[in-house]
Amino acid sequence: MTTEERVREAAVRLFAERGFHGTGIRDLAQAAGLSSATLYHYMGTKEDLLVEIMRTSLTELIGKAEQITGDETDRLVSLVKMHVRAHAEKPRETAVVDGEMRALTGERREEIVALRDRYERFWQDAIDDGVKARKLTVADPSVARLALLEMCSGVSRWYSPDGPVNLSDLTIQYGAMALGMLGAAR
Amino acid sequence: MTTEERVREAAVRLFAERGFHGTGIRDLAQAAGLSSATLYHYMGTKEDLLVEIMRTSLTELIGKAEQITGDETDRLVSLVKMHVRAHAEKPRETAVVDGEMRALTGERREEIVALRDRYERFWQDAIDDGVKARKLTVADPSVARLALLEMCSGVSRWYSPDGPVNLSDLTIQYGAMALGMLGAAR
Amino acid sequence: MTTEERVREAAVRLFAERGFHGTGIRDLAQAAGLSSATLYHYMGTKEDLLVEIMRTSLTELIGKAEQITGDETDRLVSLVKMHVRAHAEKPRETAVVDGEMRALTGERREEIVALRDRYERFWQDAIDDGVKARKLTVADPSVARLALLEMCSGVSRWYSPDGPVNLSDLTIQYGAMALGMLGAAR
Amino acid sequence: MTTEERVREAAVRLFAERGFHGTGIRDLAQAAGLSSATLYHYMGTKEDLLVEIMRTSLTELIGKAEQITGDETDRLVSLVKMHVRAHAEKPRETAVVDGEMRALTGERREEIVALRDRYERFWQDAIDDGVKARKLTVADPSVARLALLEMCSGVSRWYSPDGPVNLSDLTIQYGAMALGMLGAAR
DNA sequence: CATGAATGAGAGTTCATTCAT
DNA sequence: TATGAATGAACTCTCATTCAT
């Protein structure tokens, strides 16, 4: 593992555990096994590091979302499964993406918000298409999207690979819950 | 409005907007219209303030949960509606409760975690009872509780009273989605 | 003497002795008898402090220049005497003004440069008027202004009130040298 | 141009523009087209570099001063012309010599101060001789030397070869001003 | 009740310099 | 010759908090 990777990993862990503002440069350096001055060999500013973590994570999600095909409900279930799996497998990265956006400022914030919006577009489209095709029954598609995303993203806040729940089972269960809450025709 | 209340209100707003660690004492003082020294006449430490906000909010939720009665599904729907309404009406308080627990340390943390656990117990019981009574069908009741809570708590992150969604409608929609995702018998 | 004044005085002394970039905040604090944190009670940034020193000094010079009247050569001699006296009496302030302008950035720089230009205008006018009135003989009035100003400002770099040279004599001598170098009719 | 020369040139430029303390090693390296580590193959410490620049410049001035001969006023005018030419042709080197002496410490400072004093001796002698020979009339020869030197050294602070002033004309004008300010017999 | 003054500790970041490769 | 990596010390500045008035 390169030093860059170790820095990134330390940052992901600490940002997830303590938040961006709750993590000091010296904490980061210690977690990465470097002096705080050396840290700056491998990164720009602390905010750069945060942006990079978010960009990578969101770009990956978008990449996976783009590959999803199928009929309306299939796509929705696939999105849910993919998203839940990502949040269970990389809980720290995803928690940082979901929770630290407010720490960004200016253009960097806009960039990341744009990526997030682009990702959420896949969900909105899947829901809208499902409703149009009369396969889903929701009162308000936008509210449904938000509720569904919150439910699925929450996984990163509690799932543990060492716990009793098998990840594949988890994705299946979430797929079923998603269909249920969206009133999928049985 | 008393000065104490103004301080509390400022804290709630800033903690919600910027996070506990992202909010400085001087920010707080300015938002409350006081000097930072005067602030300390109306509060203990910054962490005290956070604890107090969380305690109040959680205690209120617990109080309301205690008053909920009815059969298994009724209780669940009532919980959902109450929770969603609380998160829509007091998005900042609830967002702080849900998002800043990690900023607490030591005993204070334990106290608040205990309150939260006590509150979530109502949800777990409602789900478990529903399952026992064969009115709900879920693969894993614990997972269901977590998914449901994340979905409902997420409301504080996006709901705006000025937006197009009526709050009563919202609670109804969330009640329906909750039943759907938990496989309620129709 | 107020604390603010002590801070200012320390800054003037250190900036003059070591330069702006050669003076640390801790040096400043120590020289003012404060902790570095307390220092920030009495000033904005280090650059603010520099700007304020320069602005005060230049404004004073301009104020004095405005009061000078008389015929062409009288005005020139008066300018020289006033300038030399100011540079001998406040060698540190004036040395900072003359030597640290490059440490300023952005708008602050523009403001101070504008003040300096406004001050130098008095000199240029006096020389130009003297030439027009055929009381001075210079090859290039702009060059003459620059040479004269450098000569006079240099006083702050070497004059000491404890030295053998009397200040009134000094101003007279500089007045004479000025007339001589500008080819004043005898 | 050798790498050593490029380093020196970059240093001269940056020290002149931003001052010694305002110039970082990385700035220097970048300006020389090297990495900061490589820089250390071509120089000692940052202070060594400064000393070397000053020593070279002052030694050159001394060398030229030594070659000046003639009667009292001729020598003075020649000194002025030579000095002005040097300051116009190498404004950065001379500005560093004149402005960054305070950045030196300990023995290095003494060495450079000694060189400067040696150089200024030529000026003092020329003035003193002129006065003795009744060709110059000054109130205080030491003051005259300081005033004259400041006037002439100031050239490096404003002269530009691209500007409207021809260099030979400039030296002539300064020669004339020098004689004027020193009350030379006509 | 209110606050200006004060501070040790720590924030993020850069410093000049060294050294193994 | 060249440099990426490394660092202790220092940088400017802000932190949460206390206290005398």
Shape of chain A: elongated
Which band does the percent of strand residues of chain A land in? under 5%
Structural class of chain A comes to mainly alpha
What's the end-to-end separation of chain A, in Å? 48 Å
Question: How many distinct helices of chain A?
Answer: 10
Biggest sheet statistics of chain A: none
Largest interface: A-B, 38 and 38 residues
**Architecture per CATH nomenclature, i.e. the level-2 architecture of the largest domain in chain A:** Orthogonal Bundle
Work out the radius of gyration of chain A. 18 Å
Report the CATH superfamily of the largest domain in chain A: Tetracycline Repressor, domain 2
Protein name (chains A, B, C, D): TetR/AcrR family transcriptional regulator
Keywords (chains A, B, C, D): DNA-binding
InterPro entries (chains A, B, C, D): Homeodomain-like_sf, HTH-type_TetR-like_transc_reg, HTH_TetR, KstR2_TetR_C, Tet_transcr_reg_TetR-rel_C_sf
Domain HTH tetR-type (chains A, B, C, D): 1-61
Protein architecture, described:
Chains A, B, C, D: This is TetR/AcrR family transcriptional regulator. Chains A, B, C, D: Residues 1-61 form the HTH tetR-type domain. Chains A, B, C, D: Residues 24-43 bind DNA. The structure is a homotetramer of 186-residue chains. With 186 residues, the first copy, chain A, is mostly helical. Chain A has two domains: 1-43, Orthogonal Bundle (Arc Repressor Mutant, subunit A); 46-181, Orthogonal Bundle (Tetracycline Repressor, domain 2). Chain A has helices at residues 3-18, 25-32, 36-42, 46-66, 72-89, 91-99, 106-132, 141-153, 155-158, 167-181. The longest helix of chain A has 27 residues, at 106-132. The mean pLDDT of chain A is 96. Chain A binds chain B through residues 17-22, 99, 102-103, 138-140, 143-144, 146-151, 153-155, 157-158, 165, 169-170, 172-174, 176-178, 180-183, and chain B through 17-22, 99, 102-103, 138-140, 143-144, 146-151, 153-155, 157-158, 165, 169-170, 172-174, 176-178, 180-183. Chain A binds a DNA duplex (21 and 21 nucleotides) through α3.
